[in-house]
Design brief:
By secondary structure, this protein is mainly β. It has 1 helix and 10 strands, in the order H-E-E-E-E-E-E-E-E-E-E. Strands 1, 2, 3, 4, 5, 6, 7, 8, 9 and 10 form a 10-stranded mixed beta sheet that branches. The longest helix is centred in the first third of the chain and has 19 residues. The chain binds copper (II) ion (CU).
Length: about 160
């Protein structure tokens, strides 16, 4: 009986998966998860954090992004300069996403920087972000507006 149930669960899982991937011919080479938009501040800047996984066996790279309400977007990293954390554009203007690896964009680290922000967004708002990859092309994902200090785990108050 247990086995039968397990079989049914697996079968349903497969069917759901098949239905979902019907429009795409194969598994996505790049998957983007946990997209968070740090866009509540009453300033003209904001940032985006996310997990980017390269499921393919070819190295890829994030080249840029586009978001409605962000006049300019840059890819930034945080580095120590004279004992102070500062952010600056990533070397080479891109974030490498090596084959088979996951790269985390997070508070205090790599991020997609929104400049010339049109207006602050309310917590919980859904935001579309268009990501441009060297190999995978353009991938549009949706993120949610979170508290400025919210880390990937949601428990860091720094
Ligand atoms: Cu930045």
């Amino acid at each position: 009986m247990k086995r039968y149930l397990l079989f049914v669960v697996l079968l349903v899982g497969l069917l759901v998966q098949a239905a979902c991937s019907n429009s795409e011919s194969k598994a996505a080479p790049i998957t983007v998860e946990n997209v968070r938009a740090n866009m509540t501040m009453p300033t003209d800047t904001g940032s985006f954090w996310m997990l980017i996984t390269n499921n393919s066996d070819t190295d890829d790279a994030l080249l840029g992004a586009a978001v409605d309400g962000c006049g300019v977007i840059e890819l930034h990293d945080m580095v120590m300069e004279n004992d102070v954390m500062v952010m600056r554009p990533v070397a080479g203007g891109k974030i490498p996403i090596p084959a088979g690896q996951t790269v985390e964009l997070k508070p205090g680290g790599l991020h997609v920087m929104c400049m010339q922000k049109a207006a602050p967004l309310a917590l919980g708002t859904k935001v579309k972000i268009e990501l441009e990859f060297a190999n995978a092309g353009t991938i549009t994902v949706e993120g949610e507006v979170v508290e400025p200090a919210m880390s990937s785990g949601g428990m860091n108050n720094n």
